[in-house]
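ok so i was messing around last nite and threw this chain in just to see what happens. nothing serious, just curious
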Amino acid sequence: MRIILLLLLLNSWNFMFSQTAMFEIKKPCATDSTEFDANKSVGMPSTNPSYEWDFDGNGIFEKQTTSPKIKYVFQNSGNYTVTLRVTGGDTYSKAIQVYDLPNASIIHNNPEICDGDSLLLQVLASSTDVVLWTTAQVNVTEVYVKYEQWYGVTIQDLHKCINRDSVLLKVLPAPVITVSEDITVQEGAKVQLEATGADYYQWTPSTGLSNPNIADPVIYPEETIKFYVQGALSNTCSAIDSVLITVIPNLNMKNNNVFSPNGDGQNDFWKIENVDDYASCELIIYNRWGQQVYQTGSYQNDWDGKSNSNDLPEGAYFYVFKCPINGKVFTGDILLVR
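result:
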């Protein structure tokens, strides 16, 4: 009778203090460490209890630990049944869903840029993802970077799954292009352009240049023109500079030697063809005795045969055009008829 009572007490003791297996899950994310915590298991364990885990749902307990906490990596997303068996206790199973990590791949062009340029980094995050760049920008899918260093992004989705990516940006030196100074020349004069600071050169426009692909081409310009040169290093980085060639036309002055300033609206002013070509020239008109009767620093075809607002008499007059840029002087006679 005593033996029977003792057995009953022992069974009651085991029932009251046996382990009831339970566990919690953190971050069920594929290819990442999923945390399992069996600290919720209750009861008085036997000495040195063990925790056996079946993560595949195949009935095989492939993981055994003495700690109630364990990390496991699911290689693929999907639905799984995880089972925990505690020594001296019972077995507990739970169906869980394992999620894919968010896409954190950084999209970019060649991560080598030239000094002064920038590179666009992009991620394909959803509107519910939390996006954090190492540039301290938050919840944006695009950032521009320009310094040589590592740049990274961390993305967390609604399931607390976290993924990361990074890229190393390399900054290549850009050339410093120096070109010959702006110049003013006579029409058709020889001009040798010159650029330094690069390995390769491309001049535009190329028309008239002896060779647009060298540092120092020659041209004989016929009109004012601006040349641009793009210089590149062997690393493909380039820079652009320009030079302006102002061309003074070869003056071949044509004028109306006879004019009649009588107010009839016809031939009332002494006129020069292409008068704008002489805008910087000084015009002086003398009478037959060498007295100055008219002077201007920029003639506009507006001399009406007067001096100090007084009509000059008919007769012969003489002009002198002095052009300071090219040093030319034009002279000739004018017949004033009334």
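not much to say yet. The CA atoms of residues 239 and 296 lie 45 Å apart.
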